[in-house]
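Batch manifest line 167
LIGAND: 7,8-dihydro-7,7-dimethyl-6-hydroxypterin
JOB: complex structure
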Amino acid sequence: MTDAFIGMGSNLGDSVALLIDARAAIDQLAGCRIVASSSLYRSAPIGPQDQPDYFNAVLHIDTSLSASELLTALQYLEQQAGRVRIRHWGERTLDLDILLYGEQIISQANLQIPHPRLTERAFVLKPLLEISRQTTLPDGQSLTTCCTATADQPICLHHDSRWSITP
Ligand code: ROI
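JOB STATUS: finished
ARTIFACT:
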């Protein structure tokens, strides 16, 4: 079994409901079990500003799937949620990214782990630091230092009773 972290994001439709459904579906994947779920966060878009705010969260899972099997499963769930991607760095229904997969560094055309932009984005680092005991990335970078460097990206906790239910 491998510890992995999944970043979730949405800014189209009922984003909170989409994230809740995705979280439940991930927990029900064969070979996947949610260990911890971060709080829900709301932030202004990184990228074009003429799109709605995003809702984000991070999940810690324990999985027997390989990284590429996990990627395939997450892409399937994105499709099931009717994923719409209108433009580059634009609004999206559901985004599920593998952030970390154990201590592995993977560099393939369709899969890069750690996620290549993990260290630059508060909407990933804040929820990740909330639930991760891991303080360094496989290359030794400190997650806390990275998070401090993103202090100019406003992000806030978003309270929604639907999210608080234990996964
Ligand atoms: N911006 C925020 N705040 N949250 C996201 O999940 C997000 N996802 C993206 C881009 C378009 C880069 N911007 C985002 O893919």
